[in-house]
Amino acid sequence: MIFLLKEAKVTLHTTYVPTLRTKNLLAQKLIRYVNLNIHEHLTTQDVSKKFFISQSYISIMFSRMLNINFKFYVSSLKVALSLYDLVQHSKSIHETATHFSFTNVSTYSKHFKNFVHMPPKKFIYHYRSMKRRSPLSKIHTDVEYISKYLSQLKQNIKLKNNVISNINLDDLQFNNHFEPMVNVIQLKQFI
């Protein structure tokens, strides 16, 4: 029996931000507000005026629910979302910093380096050089060309080698940095 993997591309018309679930209705509203207004300059003072609560209560709530403070959450989310603009839209570092309402490029670079462990310019360089050196080439759709690989694949597949791993999300811990991008696909059998 041959198993073929299918790919799917889903186009989102808004920026994807992972959902944080909590039973606290106020926390849900705060997080939703921050996520929707991430391109604005956000401070606890602004949010406290919007929700009629104290700045210290916002900080305490974020610390208790997410184990990070409000400022850290906002800056980490801005940096994470800015990665897409830098590599997919080829925006300049200045444009990206402005788009996410950082006070200046230096502040953006400082936050970026704190989370990604390299400056934005180096990150862009690594991404673009990795893209140029990609070992993947255009996929052939010719059935005769693919059939020889499918027959080899059929011979090599052994179902007993398939392992199902369960991941307990409660055991995962937040890490305050991103690892550099790496190639995930390796095609050793077909070379």
Automatic annotation (TrEMBL):
InterPro entries linked: Homeodomain-like_sf, HTH_AraC
Domain of life (superkingdom): Bacteria
Positions of the HTH araC/xylS-type domain: 28-126
Single annotated GO MF: DNA-binding transcription factor activity
Keyword annotations: DNA-binding, Transcription, Transcription regulation
PROSITE patterns: HTH_ARAC_FAMILY_2
The protein's name: Transcriptional regulator
Species of the source: Staphylococcus gallinarum
